[in-house]
């Protein structure tokens, strides 16, 4: 049967992965002096991982006791995504006729996804997502500015 308690080393690894990957994403935003930087991305990723681990704990604890009291773990992920979407939307502003902060809002959303993937223990998915996100933000951002001449 399942144990409702995650071993402390699993918790440490999952939270460390979420924190570290959030750090990498936030560092790129911090270097570019964007509104949501290092701490914001790390906190979003850690929080998402924690909510998922708590949800798994509740799921397995109810499965061991009364099976009719089971919860749907996808609802926890939905709640995390909604909350993170609210934070991301807060980083998007309209100034002088142009919309700014969309990439930062999207990176906050990705930080949440990093946390969810880390929280469920899918570290390869979290690591690959971080790599793809950093390539998209940093490499393609450079390409847009230098090659295409985008001023955004």
Automatic annotation (TrEMBL):
Transmembrane among keywords: yes
The name this protein goes by in its record: Protein MgtC
GO CC term (a single one): plasma membrane
Major subcellular site: membrane
Keyword Secreted: no
InterPro entries: MgtC/SapB/SrpB/YhiD_fam (IPR003416), MgtC_SapB_SrpB_YhiD_N (IPR049177)
PANTHER family in the record: MAGNESIUM TRANSPORTER YHID-RELATED (PTHR33778:SF1), PROTEIN MGTC (PTHR33778)
Signal sequence annotation: none
TM region(s), chain numbering: 6-27, 43-63, 75-95, 102-120, 126-143
Species assigned in the record: Marinobacter daqiaonensis
Residue ranges annotated for the MgtC/SapB/SrpB/YhiD N-terminal domain, each copy included: 15-145
Family: Belongs to the MgtC/SapB family.
Assigned keywords, A-Z: Cell inner membrane, Cell membrane, Membrane, Transmembrane, Transmembrane helix
Subcellular location: Cell inner membrane; Cell membrane
One Pfam family this sequence matches: MgtC
Membrane topology of this protein: Multi-pass membrane protein
